[in-house]
Amino acid sequence: MTTQGKAFEQVYKGEPAVWLQWGSYEAAVLPEVGANLIAFRDTSKGYHILREPAEQEMEAFKANPGIHGIPVLFPPNRYEDGRFEFNGRTYNFPINEPKTGNHLHGFAHTAIWNVEDYGVNKTESYVTLALSVDEKHPIFEFLPHVFTLRLRYALNDTGLLQHISVHNEGQDAMPCMVAFHTAVNAPFAPNSTPEDCSFTMTIGNRWEMSERMLPTSKFLPLSDGEKAIQSTGVPTYWEAMDNHYTAEPRNGRNQMVLTDSREQVSLVYDVGTAFKQWMVWNNNATKGFFCPEPQLNLVNAPNVDLPADEIGLVSLEPGGIWENSSRFYLRAAK
Which pTM was predicted? Predict the structure, then answer.
């Protein structure tokens, strides 16, 4: 029996990687750099969907792997003074953003993950990676729980599927806070320009943020441009964005849709309805890439006095599993 897929180990710009291929799609994941899915391409059209580091950028990328590919954030974004309380326990994270005095982005995106499995079956090529934390793991100092993060990526005719699960293998409830700092090329097509690109996103309300980039618990009124993000779309670099929104699924889906008017194609990033928040960052409207970031929880959630369900603060019970699937696919522009 022949298949149209492959899964194999091969370096990516000097870094150990697992590659997936299916038809004209290919993807690469870096186990030793936070299980970052560093590439997703359509080789027949020359599309590079995700922002990839150049060869000379690899060392800088590995030192700070936040704005290329799909970094896993656990816990995501900022925590005031690097401290919060949860279930009667105080957590202390290092202050790694001196200008705000906060902890930023957690520990998973810089950790070494293990490759559990990769292969090809009748319907897909796939890889599964895991980050297992116990008392001997360096992350345990800051997140004193026994748990496993597990990522599965699969390629098939419809594009790229991402599945993440958090497994609490300890004796205490643990805070489950996760996001992806997804860096999408705009344009992703070789002959298109930034001006060819616009996007929509299932945002709801915009959170007001303090000077320390922490939510105040209040909402800001949406501008006309932000209202257009909800409906007709806006140019990808219409203004500088470092904005935090609630997610408001529409038609049963929670997604970002990036449309290339020249190619007449749309990239759909459907993140699933478990993610209650969005961050949108476009590097001060610098043309080239932007980050539509699905977040389970509100920034600084444990320090915000709002209902847990409203802000996506999940308490994962001993033996409990939290999971979610997201998908990238291409379709004709509407």
Answer: 0.96
